[in-house]
Write a structure and sequence with these properties.
This protein is of the alpha+beta class. The protein has helices spanning 13-63, 89-98, 108-111, 139-145, 225-229; strands at 68-75, 80-87, 160-166, 169-171, 177-182, 189-191, 197-202, 232-236, 242-248, 253-256. It has one domain (13-195). The protein has a five-stranded antiparallel beta sheet with strand order 3-2-1-5-6. It has a five-stranded antiparallel beta sheet with strand order 4-7-8-9-10. It is elongated.
Length: 257
C-alpha cells in the first residue's frame, strides 16, 4: 500500500522577490563597511611593504653585504615608488679617495645622493651584481591589491637593490627624497627626509598627498575622513631601527603597530 502523498510546493514569485529585495538591502548596507575595510587592508599592506624595504636594506648593512645604503621615495602623478640602493665596501673605499663628497669634513647629507641628479653614483661593482636582495616575498598580498610586489631580485644596473610601486597610497612629500644609513651612524644622512619620518595615507582623486597639520604631527584640517582613518607614520633612528605608527582619529594620538 502506497503512503499518503505529501503536499510539497516551491516558492512563489512574490516570495522570491521579497528574498531578492532583502538580500539587496543587506548588501547595500554592508557595502560601505566592506569598501572601508578593503581600503584599510590595501593601505596597511602597502605600509608593511615599505617598512620591510627599510628594514631589509639595513639588515644587509649589518650582515656586511653593503657598507652604505639608501632608502628613496619617488612620488609621481598617479603612483609612488620606493627604492633601496647600496654601495659595497670596495665602492666606499674608492669614493673616499676619489669623490669630494667622501673627503674628510664633507657633509653626510651630501653623500646621500638622489640618483636622478647624480648619474652613476649608485652603480654597482662586479662584486655585488650577483648579490640577491632579501626583501619580503609578498606575492599573495600583491595579487589581492593589484600592486607591484616587492620581489627577491638581484641588484640592477641602476644600483637598485629592491623596489616597490603602488597607486593605492601617497605620502606627505611632493619631490624625490632619501635617507642613507651605514652599519653605525657614522655616515647617516638625508636628502629631503631630515625630519626622520614621513607619512603614508590612501590615494584618491582629492588626496594626491597626505595633508598634514602645520606641526606635521596630525592630519591637516583639509584631510578627508578616509585619510584620517588610514594615516600611518614611518620613522627611524640613525642606526636604522624602523618604527611604524597609526593615527587614531578618536584619541587624536599615534599608536605603535
Amino acid at each position: 500500500m502506497l503512503g499518503s502523498e505529501k503536499n510539497i510546493r516551491g516558492f512563489n514569485l512574490l516570495e522570491l522577490l521579497v528574498v531578492v529585495v532583502l538580500i539587496g538591502i543587506l548588501s547595500a548596507a554592508a557595502y560601505p563597511n566592506f569598501q572601508s575595510w578593503q581600503k584599510d587592508r590595501k593601505v596597511r599592506q602597502a605600509v608593511i611593504k615599505v617598512k620591510s624595504l627599510i628594514s631589509g636594506i639595513n639588515t644587509q648593512v649589518q650582515r656586511g653585504a653593503y657598507t652604505y645604503v639608501q632608502f628613496e621615495i619617488k612620488p609621481e602623478d598617479d603612483s609612488i615608488t620606493f627604492n633601496t640602493r647600496g654601495l659595497s665596501a670596495g665602492q666606499v673605499g674608492m669614493m673616499k679617495t676619489e669623490d669630494p663628497l667622501w673627503q674628510v669634513g664633507a657633509s653626510n647629507n651630501g653623500k646621500c645622493v638622489i640618483d636622478d641628479i647624480g648619474a652613476n653614483y649608485w652603480m654597482p661593482d662586479a662584486s655585488v651584481l650577483d648579490t640577491p636582495s632579501e626583501t619580503e616575498d609578498t606575492s599573495t598580498a600583491a595579487e589581492d591589491s593589484g600592486e607591484e610586489e616587492v620581489e627577491t631580485e638581484k641588484e640592477t644596473g641602476a644600483g637598485i637593490v629592491a623596489s616597490y610601486k603602488s597607486d593605492d597610497i601617497t605620502v606627505d612629500i611632493t619631490v624625490t627624497a632619501a635617507v642613507c644609513f651605514s652599519k653605525d651612524d657614522t655616515y647617516y644622512g638625508a636628502n629631503g627626509l631630515e625630519s626622520g619620518k614621513f607619512h603614508i595615507c590612501p590615494r584618491s582623486g582629492t588626496d594626491s598627498i597626505c595633508k598634514m597639520s602645520s606641526t606635521g604631527d596630525s592630519p591637516g584640517s583639509e584631510a578627508s575622513e578616509d585619510v584620517q582613518k588610514n594615516l600611518f607614520r614611518v620613522s627611524w633612528s640613525r642606526f636604522g631601527a624602523v618604527k611604524l605608527e597609526k593615527y587614531d582619529i578618536d584619541d587624536e594620538d599615534w599608536y605603535t603597530q
